[in-house]
Amino acid sequence: MEPLAAGIAHEVRNPLAIIRSTAQYCLGEVVNNKDLEESLQTIIKSSETANRVVSDLVEFARPEAVDFKQQSLAPIIKEGLRMVHGRAKTQKVKLSKSVARNLPQLFLDKKRFLQAYINFLVNALDSMPNGGKLRVEAARDNSHRGVRLIIHDSGKGIPEEVLSKILQPFYSTKKEGVGLGLPIAEGIIRSHGGKVDFKSQPREGTEVMVLLPVRKRNINGNHSRY
Predict the structure, then answer these.
(1) Does residue 212 have a pLDDT over 90?
(2) Which residues contact 66 (CB under 8 A, 6 or more apart)?
C-alpha cells in the first residue's frame, strides 16, 4: 500500500501543480470576463482539493512517526478551539469547554494529536451549518487510568447505519469528502495508546469520546501505560 500511494502521489501531484499554476497565470491575464475568472478559480480550487486528497492518501498509507513529549492537554484543547473559532462564529455555533484542573500530564505528539482533535471539531461544525453548540470536556477517567476527552455537538446526528461505517477508509457521506479524515484521526489516537468512541442519534447531536492513557517513561526511553 505504501509504495503504491507514494507512486500515485508522485504521478498525480506534478500535473496538478502544472494545472494550478497555469490557471493562476491565466487568471492574472483575464480582463473584464467574469465567467472566465470564475471558471479559472474553480480549476484552482479543485486542484487544491485534489492535492489534499493525495496528501490524505499518502498519510493513511504511511503515517508520520510520532514524537512524544510530556505536556498538558489543556493548552491543546484551547488552541484547537481557537483555530476553529472563526468558522464557528460564521456558522453561529457557540463554543464552550470544561477542563478539570487535576488532569495528569500526558505523553503526546502535539502536532499529530492536534491534527486529530481539529478533525473531530471540524466534523462537528460540519453537522451544524445553521448554528448550534459545540462543547469540549476533559476529565480524569479513573476506570481506564487515563484522561477522557469528550467533544459534543448539537448537530443533526448520525444514523446508526452510517455510524457503524464512519471509521472505514474511503467511506464518506459528504459531497467533497474522501473518507480518510476520521480513519487518520482515529489512527493518531491509537498511536497514542488511546481509543475513540462515537455516540449519536439523528437530530440529537453527536458525542466523540477519546480515552487517553497516562504513560510514564521506561528506563529504555520507551513509553508504557501507567
Answers:
(1) yes
(2) 109, 112, 191, 192
Residue entry with cell 490557471: 23
Q: Strand pairing partners for 200? A: 206
Q: Which CATH number, 3.40.50.1970, 3.40.710.10, 2.60.40.3080, 3.30.565.10, labels domain 69-225?
A: 3.30.565.10
Q: What is the pLDDT of residues 77-113, one digit of tens each?
A: 999 999 999 999 999 999 999 999 889 999 999 988 9
- Give the C-alpha distances (Å, rounded to integers) separating 174 from 15, 127, 166, 177, 178: 26, 11, 11, 5, 8
- Of 116, 106, 105, 107, the C-alpha closest to 68 is 107
DSSP β-ladder status, 132-141 and 93-99? parallel
CA trace torsion 179, 180, 186, 188 (10° rounding) = -170
Is the CB of residue 152 less than 8 Å from the CB of residue 132? Answer: no
Judged against a pLDDT cut of 60, whether residue 5 lies above it is answered with no
